[in-house]
Amino acid sequence: xxxxxxxxxxxxxxxxxxxxxxxxxxxxxxxxxxxxxxxxxxxxxxxxxxxxxxxxxxxxxxxxxxxxxxxxxxxxxxxxxxxxxxxxxxxxxxxxxxxxxxxxxxxxxxxxxxxxxxxxxxxxxxxxxxxxxxxxxxxxxxxxxxxxxxxxxxxxxx
Length: 158
Fold this sequence. Notes:
The protein has one domain: Jelly Rolls. Strands 1, 2, 3, 4, 5 and 6 form a 6-stranded antiparallel β-sheet that branches. Helix 3 crosses helix 4. By secondary structure, it is α+β, with helices and mostly antiparallel strands. It is 38% helix and 27% strand.
């Protein structure tokens, strides 16, 4: 098993056969971005899925009229997938993504993903199952942040 396959084996590729994973990875492009690069913005068309090889991505929601507001929801590190909105209608990013440190990614565009899924239903099923797990984890993180904010408001009167 290659290092890249192993890196994502417990996340997005969990349950895929090695040949399916290899076929998927062959369609990805590797790119490196500097610290602070904005990869995508909340509510824009979701055109790519990103797999983090090195570095990280901070996920934020945007707050109009609050430029310096701390809105980070989560940080994703090596081995994580970001931008799954590219395979889930209505194909719009739910958060904004910014590179944390220099970040090397594997990228695959939405059209290529759709072709892969239309020709390999097993791979599509496994991906969607794994996306559901990622969604549940993200929801749990948002719930934790909300609970902390509510406690802070109760203690400090906001």
